[in-house]
Amino acid sequence: MPPVQPSQHFASCIPRNLKMAASKLKLHYFDVRGRAEVDRLILAAAGKDFDEVRFSLEDWPSHKPKSPYGQAPWMEVDGVPFAQSLAIHSFLARELGFHGRTSLEMFKIDEIVHLLDELFTLAASNYHIDDEEEKAEDARKIKEQEAPKFLGFFEEILQKNETGYLVGDRLTLADIALFDACTGFLSDYMELTHDYPMVQHNVELVKGNDKIAEYLVSRN
């Protein structure tokens, strides 16, 4: 019998009829907010229960072999592992009602999330610089040169949309991702000044969501 190709084997493991309300989700990530916090915020906004496995950097070698591609985060859906943070964000947003209503809204939301990931990647690279002087100088450049450029993009998107939200007239993945950028890991690399009133308002809208507000009080 010829060997089964990896893609065929993996496809055979994917649940054919996903029912999110009954599905069991398990999120695996380091014991920090990082790239998994957007997922936690979506799940909180939806009121969806999930299990979570958090581990330290020191314990990562024992968890790495369990991840699909040797990277974190990853998420199990009814026991089947899936990876790549942006893919996880998008999946949860679609299934839990925080993605676009039309294909063009989905396009715009994905565009914004990928744009934010560019800034996240810059900050993550800075985080791993060992030389303290080099690290400080790189962080200064991100905060003074790169972050204002991105914040300007989001300010303009919000001005054009005129609803307070980045896309459409309701809370979506785009708003949740921007909120996390402004209040989470990236907050050390940007200054949300009065030059960005629409972004400030958007952050307050997300923070004011009842379920997210409840989560923020209790989160680690």
From TrEMBL:
GO terms for biological process: glutathione metabolic process. Residues 102-220 form the GST C-terminal domain. One of its GO terms (molecular function) is glutathione transferase activity. Pfam families: GST_C_3 (PF14497), GST_N (PF02798). Residues 23-100 form the GST N-terminal domain. Gene3D superfamilies: 1.20.1050.10, Glutaredoxin. PANTHER family: GLUTATHIONE S-TRANSFERASE. This is Glutathione transferase. It comes from Lymnaea stagnalis.
